[in-house]
From TrEMBL:
<dbReference type="Pfam" id="PF00571">
    <property type="entry name" value="CBS"/>
</dbReference>
<dbReference type="InterPro" id="IPR051257">
    <property type="entry name" value="Diverse_CBS-Domain"/>
</dbReference>
<feature type="compositionally biased region" description="Polar residues">
    <location>
        <begin position="135"/>
        <end position="145"/>
    </location>
</feature>
<dbReference type="InterPro" id="IPR046342">
    <property type="entry name" value="CBS_dom_sf"/>
</dbReference>
<feature type="region of interest" description="Disordered">
    <location>
        <begin position="126"/>
        <end position="145"/>
    </location>
</feature>
<keyword id="KW-0129">CBS domain</keyword>
<dbReference type="InterPro" id="IPR000644">
    <property type="entry name" value="CBS_dom"/>
</dbReference>
<protein>
    <submittedName>
        <fullName>CBS domain-containing protein</fullName>
    </submittedName>
</protein>
<feature type="domain" description="CBS">
    <location>
        <begin position="74"/>
        <end position="132"/>
    </location>
</feature>
<feature type="domain" description="CBS">
    <location>
        <begin position="9"/>
        <end position="67"/>
    </location>
</feature>
Amino acid sequence: MNQPLRNIMTSEVFTVNESQSIREAAAIMSEHNIGALPVVNNSGQMTGFITDRDITLRSTAQGETAETPVSKVMTAQQIVQGTPDMDISQAAQLMAQQQIRRLPVVENGQIVGMVALGDLATEQEFDDEAEEALSSISTPSAPQE
């Protein structure tokens, strides 16, 4: 049964601007109890993604200050994205292949939603896809060089 992502995505997406500090990004994450934020430019176009793990490993562990701009520690290359009309099964397969737990949903260059692995798991008809995605995501990947 084909269902578009728009049926399960979270539409209220909190973002951070690439020029904001990692302190501000961490505060947004803390306030909304989330672990990742899409990074947008002044036009609202997604330019990257930052996670609580990025802040820890790419800034704190490297001796950066809390005022370090998000752009310095975000993931900016090869941001995997979905579209609102993408089939949920396709999204789960993409998340599994790319070993990601969160999929930003973009339309016309603007972030319009977010789908997390947990969103897939709450839809009973997609239990198999969620299980497969989690299994693939949990498989250790090769270290980056």
